[in-house]
């Protein structure tokens, strides 16, 4: 995994790296590998994850086809409009 550091901004690069690692599932895998997982538990977990993914896919498909109502969208807080710019008066 590679992240470019622009203008010596290491904090920004770290944030981007963490986001990429989160998307790839690195943190989840690290957490699972902290302790031993029996093969039977692993199969059970993977099967449950597959079922969860299939249900999510089916739900999204049903929403697209109009069989289920779409979930309500989150409302963002309203922003105040910017103040109008006043023309600078010439001195004199």
Q: TL;DR of this structure?
A:
The protein has 92 residues and is mostly helical. 53% of the residues lie in helices and 0% in strands.
Describe the protein's architecture and organization:
- The protein has about 90 residues and is mainly alpha-helical.
- It folds into two domains: about 1-35, no CATH class; about 40-70.
- Helices cover about 55% and strands about 0% of the residues.
- The chain is built from three helices and no strands.
- Belongs to the bacterial ribosomal protein bS21 family.
- Keywords: Ribonucleoprotein, Ribosomal protein.
- GO terms for molecular function: structural constituent of ribosome.
Order of helices and strands: HHH
**Radius of gyration from CA coordinates:** 24 Å
Which oligomeric form is depicted? single chain
Ranges with pLDDT <50 over ≥5 residues?
none
Mean pLDDT: 90
Largest sheet: none
Count of individual helical segments: 3
Number of E strands: 0
Organism: Bradyrhizobium niftali
GO cellular component, one term: ribonucleoprotein complex
Keywords: Ribonucleoprotein, Ribosomal protein
GO molecular function, one term: structural constituent of ribosome
Write the layout of secondary structure elements.
Layout: H1 10-24, H2 26-32, H3 39-65
């Amino acid at each position: 995994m590679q992240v470019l550091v622009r203008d010596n901004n290491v904090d920004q690069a770290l944030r981007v790296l963490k986001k990429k690692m989160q998307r790839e599932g690195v943190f989840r895998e690290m957490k699972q590998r902290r302790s031993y997982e029996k093969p039977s538990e692993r199969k059970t977990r993977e099967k449950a994850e597959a079922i969860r993914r299939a249900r999510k896919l089916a739900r999204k498909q049903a929403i697209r086809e109009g069989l289920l109502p779409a979930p309500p969208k989150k409302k963002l807080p309203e922003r105040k409009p910017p103040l109008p710019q006043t023309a600078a008066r010439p001195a004199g």
